[in-house]
Amino acid sequence: MRALQHIANGRPPEVREVPTPTPTGGQVLIKVLAAGACHSDEFVMSQPSEALGIELPLTLGHEGVGVVAELGPAASGVEVGEAVAVYGPWGCGRCHTCTTGAEQYCERAGELGIRPPGLGAPGAMAEYLLVDDARHLVPLQGLDPVTAAPLTDAGLTPYHAIKPVLPSLVPGTTAVVIGAGGLGHLAIQMLKALSACQVVALDLGEDKLAFAREVGADHAFASDESAIEAVREVTGGRMADAVFDFVGMQASTVLAPRMVHPQSEIVVVGVGDGAVPVGFLTMPYNVKVRSPYWGTIPELHEVLALARSAAIRVETEVFSLDDAPTIYERMHARQLRGRAVVVP
Ligand code: NAD
Ligand code: ZN
Ligand code: ZN
Questions:
Q1: Which residue, 156, 22, 180, 13, is CA-closest to 87?
Q2: Which of the residues 27, 154, 182, 210 has the least number of beta carbons within 10 Å of its own beta carbon?
Q3: pLDDT tens, 44-90?
Q4: Do residue 59 and residue 164 come from a single domain?
Q5: Atom 13 of ligand 1, nearest CA residue
Q6: Would you tell me how many other CB atoms lie within 10 Å of the CB of residue 229?
Q7: Tell me: the pLDDT tens digits for 207-262?
Q8: Ligand 1 center–CA 183 separation, angstroms
Q9: How does pLDDT run across 141-150, given as a tens digit for each residue?
Q10: pLDDT exceeds cutoff 90 at 326
């Protein structure tokens, strides 16, 4: 079969011929219908693979949707031909944390060498994907595969970041979303659909700001120093109740503490060289700072249900497997709108 592989650090990924896997034990083979491209792929390709503990070549793709093609001899719970979304942050399934459905925080994944598809295990940007266990498959139930694939990460990750903050986002409050890309454009829609807050988006470039407004942001401003005064103005001086940073670089993490009021929340989702320093001289009193990772299995069910209700809409740009390497050039140049999805 053909697969998009990360071959070496700093080199663009390549489409290569690899053996089609056969499911053993409880594994399930999926025929891939769609696989989303995440900015984290670019991060992985830019870092020394040894530092990340990743063996190369690596088939990319951690947002996968497909149909069940074949079951391993011990696999059960899914039927051949069933359309499914793949829950990517695989855990051991047995530790205390995994039993709550939060497999992304598995207590034993490191020790057991369990890696997510596309981030250590062979990923979804291929004709077939091997899934370790049927518990990591969630029925699509009528969702379109192309728009559903990004829901498994670009949807699930912001949902997991936003959900704990929802009770405080009452009428009169403000949430700031930094970075209106794959994750951010869904974060904006989720905040509008699930809370009464006003949503302010920050990004770079008029096209991105227009896109943020199109998907529901009440205001969109350039992501620089001037954003602090802009947030002050649209909140009547009160500042934001929550900041969701989908960039995670110094340029964004320096802004967040200056846009909140006491007891607000700063959620750093973007993976970059930025950090939010916590201390009495760095931000207002009692601000909570978190860096959540991906999401839980129950939350993936909730995100798919939210999409079925049409409360959120995934903006996609579709690419063939052959054209997939160009996705990362366009991502780097910040030219993508919403999520790039590969249809093998
Ligand atoms: P993306 O490339 O689709 O979107 C990034 C957006 O940020 C773009 O619109 C870009 O114009 C904008 N941007 C860049 N610099 C900016 C700045 N200084 N201020 C404001 N906006 C800026 O990326 P994505 O796939 O949505 O991923 C976003 C980030 O989240 C990445 O760092 C990715 O690695 C990370 N991520 C984290 C998790 C997690 O579990 N924590 C999961 C998935 C992705
Ligand atoms: Zn991702
Ligand atoms: Zn576990």
A1: 156
A2: 210
A3: 999 999 989 999 999 999 999 999 999 999 999 999 999 999 999 99
A4: no
A5: 179
A6: 10
A7: 999 999 999 999 999 999 999 999 999 999 999 999 999 999 999 999 999 999 99
A8: 7
A9: 999 999 999 9
A10: yes
Q: Kindly state the tokens that stand for 54.
A: 């990743």
**pLDDT tens digits, 7-17:** 999 899 999 99
Could you list which residues have their CB under 5 Å from ion ligand 2?
A: 38, 40, 153
221 and 284 part of one domain = yes
The pairing of beta strand 137-139 with beta strand 14-17: unpaired
37 Cβ inside 6 Å of ligand 1: no
> pLDDT at residue 43 above 90?
yes
Distance between CA 17 and CA 177 in Å, rounded? 40
Q: What are phi and psi of 65, to 5 degrees?
A: -135, 140
* Domain limits for position 322: 2-153+295-343
Q: Is there a single domain that holds both residue 185 and residue 113?
A: no
pLDDT at 10: 85
Helices 297-308 and 182-194, axial angle in degrees (round to 10) = 80
* DSSP letters spanning 308-329: HTTS----EEEEETTTHHHHHH
Structural domain total, the chain: 2
Residues 196 and 67 in one domain: no
Count of Cβ atoms closer than 10 Å to residue 204 Cβ: 15
Residues 200 and 331 in one domain: no
> In CATH, what number is assigned to the domain containing residue 97?
3.90.180.10
Q: Do 83 and 120 share a domain, yes or no?
A: yes
How far does the centroid of ligand 3 lie from the alpha carbon of residue 223, in Å?
38
